[in-house]
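User: Can you write out an input/output pair for a complex, sequences first and structure second?

Assistant: Here is one pair. Inputs:
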Amino acid sequence: MHPDYDHLQQAAKDHLWMHFTRHSTYDHADVPVIVRGEGPYIWDAHGKRYLDGLSGLFVSQLGHGRTELVDAAAKQARELAFMPLWSYAHPTAIELAERIAGYAPGDLNRVFFTSGGGEAVETAWKLAKNYFKLTGKPTKHKVISRAIAYHGTTQGALSITGLPTMKEPFEPLVPSTFRVPNTNFYRAGGGFVASRSGDTHGTAEHGALDAARSLEAFGQWAANRIAEAIEFEGPETVAAVFLEPVQNSGGCFPPPPGYFQRVREICDEYDVLLVSDEVICAFGRLGHMFGAERYGYQPDIITCAKGLTSGYSPLGAMIATDRLMAPFLEGPSSFAHGYTFGGHPVSTAVAMANLDIFEDEKINEHVRDTEGAFRATLEKLSDLPIVGDVRGDGYFYGIELVKDKATKETFNDEESEKLLRGFLSRALFDEGLYCRADDRGDPVVQLAPPLICDQQHFDEIEQILRVVLDKAYSLI
Ligand code: PLP
């Protein structure tokens, strides 16, 4: 037990305003207080251990307690604790910008640091608008994004976000953003889902082939909705499309094969910037430095944060092409935008040390080598009646829960409330797994463990989920 436990509890309830938190939950329960971490595990104030199945919040790529990152932070703070990037630079920001530019695909070559992901998204939208104003297309300002996608909470990023209930309390938000369908193949309907068992076409092989073709056709259909939205809004008004490589919110929707290639064509055709929002998907989450690399497409801008430092210090970045920076390199022009803590020296030093470990310990290779085992372990849960779909890539998965597997019937609001908030989140935690039960789309359990995990941790996740999901089904 933490020596100051009772005081911490009271002070948390009296003074700490937690993010996205229903505080009444803690009227008659203790606030969970996490006091330390080691590797992929965290411990609460009672000394109980949990597997960090969400890497905090898709952040702790290398897990907890990495002394190299701690030492890098201390060394930098001792040497130069702070200097903004407002007309001045400091060595680790320069080195990190060069390094990120080296990793980034194609001609993505210019790195603008922020304090986190939402600021990177804001920065990307502002750059898109400003760029077109400076290059003779001043009416291009609108953004297309996908239904249920989350892109942050600041008013611009929230406007781009595709979750109406999250936006409603803060309307009116920044105008000029428009939604298109996401790539939720499980719920695609419309004749896209072919028989996986082959029962309509004679053989299982044919069925699988049809399913693959159908997935591809669905991807083309979804991508073409972007062209349609651009046409509808007027290409001369649309500046950018914001897409995650794998959409998190809604429960991990990987892109169908060919989806991003078609989106790239559309963006080229209409001179619209393709922004790959990789706040979650970059830095190993999908086994590559960037998700765009995994799925073979070339964005005009990447936004990233989270795993860049493995959470040992906050940092985000917008990475843009030389073409997008060119208008800002001439005469008196400048990008009139910045953040006091964007590119904080301690964070950039930590990011350098983090990326050193990525190289030394071959973290991306490890994810690529073991992701098949992670998937196979999670797919074992498909025998449970409540598990409708297991989807994702790399170390990034969503398990969709359904009331009826055969019909894919989902839970109504009341059931979802009872299941997710009333039972699942707490029960998983009580069984020793920190992860998230989320109902921003259909109900899902989200998993994104630290990238150092292996089979032993996958098994632990599966075993805890099996027990808790079984119990959950008996409650409905
Ligand atoms: N974009 C995406 C895709 C995200 O997942 C998130 C956060 O989870 C953000 C933006 C916002 O990042 P932050 O919370 O660091 O502002």
